[in-house]
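User: I'm curious whether this sequence folds into something compact or stays loose and floppy. Could you predict its structure so I can see for myself?
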Amino acid sequence: MAKKVIITVAQTGAFHGKNVNLNLPEQPHEIVASAYDCYNAGASIVHIHTRDKEGKSSCDTNTFAEINSGIRSKCNMIIQNSTAPATRPGSKADDGLAALALPPELLPDMCSLDCSLISTSWQDLTWIYEWTRPWLIKTAARMKELGIKPELECFNPVTVEEVFGVLKPAGVLNDPISLTFVMGMDKVSQASISYSEENLNFMIGKLPKNEFVNFSTLAIGANQLQGTVLTLLKGGNVRVGMEDNVYYRKGELAKSNAQLVERMVRIIRELDMEVATPAEAREILKLKKR
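Assistant: Here's the prediction. I'll summarize afterward.
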């Protein structure tokens, strides 16, 4: 049986916006419309950040509610809300937990959970987020209580060890683990690993050999396509979208997030694999439909 590959689309992000690609969706109606196009193109999971009316990064419960409701009214995509704080002065770790305050019918299926203490410097701002072990255990426990599966974002090999050496033994994670290697953030975030084939192989080598783990790679910028395809060849799932790379190829801006999904669908099929539907992805990840 051909491997079923889960495609996640990360449409927006918390950093760049329409200033680098006018096709990047920022407002709720744009994000919902783009998600539906990506669903029709073959994406099963949509990773969501929110922006304010001026297009600046935000973590607003009402905006998450509008987006989650809009997507669910159109399709059965798996909704994965970000818990990364907004890139604003004074942001703290808890500021990113807006999605956990949604009413039950609008809660996401998944939330990202960054598993490392990170110092990020962007433009003239610097943040040090308090993603400590106690904070991670508390937040993962709250997600478990709400029926939300964390997408565990690992910025370096040590954070992979944290997942399986600290979080899982604490009893706050349900199998199967879903994990993303975040690579290429090293220019703006201390303690973040750069992308290379060698580094990716090392990160994959940190995964336990005796259990099934859903993993993918979030490679930033010019390395995005290579990192994604290499992860696919090594048994992983894939993530695409303008949060990670606003270009389709060198010098050519992406026309839409759906265009990036469509290319990945072609690659998956050319490699004699199959694209997982949202229903199949739910089964793989053991997610209940909300």
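Summary: The longest helix spans residues 28-41. The chain has one domain: 4-285.
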